[in-house]
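Hi, here's the filled form for the chain we discussed.

Project: internal
Contact: R.S.
Residues: 151
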Amino acid sequence: MIQALTFLRRGFLSCVLGAFLCTCVTQKASADDRDLEPKEHTKDSLDTVKEKIAEKKAILVDVRDLVEWNAGHVQGAVLLPWRELQDKLTEAQVKEKLPKDKILYTHCAVGYRSLRAAKILKKYGYEVRALKPGYEELVKAGFPSEKKNAP
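And the returned structure, exactly as it came back:
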């Protein structure tokens, strides 16, 4: 019985130590983009965003997941999921999807992924402005929405 408890205790301590080390590694990896701009969401009003998009000076980049996109998205937005941007897409692949000569307004559901995506896109040389308002707020503000699956 004592041997079993010792074994369980060692296993528990190994799990705790492993979790701690994973946390440290994850924090180090995520700290790499902390110095990149933007550090906060844009101060542009949603009316300004609409104007820039209407004038073809900007585009809206939806960084939510595909499932969220398929449930509804702003018409004319470009789908570029944050997870893919962070983990899979190369800079060259991003450049194929997004124009360099326009302002990119990133948006998600509540603003977190929008800011993270903006940091990566800024690193690639884009003029990016992360929106704090999420998809639901954009729709309430008058941005037209649609439910159409991504190609």
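Let me know if anything looks off before we file it.
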